[in-house]
Amino acid sequence: MKILLISLLLIFAPAIVTKAQDSRIQMSSLDHLVAKASQTIDVNIDERLIRISAKFLSNDDPDEKRVKELVNGIKGIYVKSFEFANDGEYSPADVESVRAQLRGPGWTRLVGVTSKKDGNLEVYLLLEGEKVGGMAVLHTDDRELTVVNIVGPVDLDKLAALDGHLGIPDLGIEKPKAKKDEQ
After folding, report:
1. DSSP string over 75-125
2. Tally of domains within the chain
3. For the chain: N or C, fewer Cβ within 10 A?
């Protein structure tokens, strides 16, 4: 459980924000899928649990210290994931209940990937001026529906720095690089 918690905390890195509660997505409309799913993951980590977990991280270990800095400011991490034995066990309306919220004020779709093999992946940010006040990831395929919601600040530079490190998969996030002269 500690590894799952630390992995989730590492994936989504915080900064500073004032309107973190506005970035919480309501996922209760998906609760009826529990009865249909062959596997369900439901993660609800509020600010209190994040602070408690961060206390167990060492300032002496560079990786743990980095994680501790990253989780500072996060108000919550919420995940609902459903795997189904058969295709079509959730409806487009289920996905739309989440997408409709992500069309609200401040939300911007950052990434949209469609793949016949791997399904669809969408990444949304709640922008508050120049800062990112929340993040949502929506993944769908024929037999899976997953929603990840980070409530609070997300520092994309820190997230990019962790890309492919500390057990975090390579998400393909790149920092802007200085342009090289063409030869």
Report:
1. -EEEEEEEE-SSTTSS-HHHHHHHHHHHTSTTEEEEEEEEETTTEEEEEEE
2. 1
3. C
Q: For the chain, give the percent of residues with pLDDT over 90.
A: 35
Would 141 be classed as within a structural domain? Answer: yes
Nearest to 133 by CA among 116, 115, 156: 156
The yes-or-no verdict on residue 92 having pLDDT over 50 is yes
pLDDT score of 11 more than 80: no
CA 24 and chain centroid, separation: 11
Q: Please check whether residue 7 lies inside any domain of the structure.
A: yes
Q: What are phi and psi of 68, to 5 degrees?
A: -60, -45
Q: What is the reported pTM? A: 0.74
Structural contact between residues 5 and 51, judged by C-beta atoms closer than 8 angstroms: no
Q: Check residue 126 and report its DSSP letter.
A: E
Residue 172, pLDDT score: 53
Asked if 9 and 74 count as a contact pair (C-beta separation under 8 A), the reply is yes
Contacts of 71 by beta carbon, 8 Å cutoff, 6+ apart: 9, 14, 50, 53, 54
Kindly compute the dihedral angle of the four CA atoms of residues 88, 110, 21, 106, in this order, to the nearest 10 degrees: -110
The reply to whether 168 falls in a domain is: no
Provide the residue range defining the domain that includes 59: 2-162
Answer yes or no: is pLDDT of 1 > 50.
no
The rounded Cα 161 to chain-centroid distance in angstroms is 16
Strand order in the sheet with 107-115: 39-46, 76-83, 144-151, 131-141, 119-128, 107-115
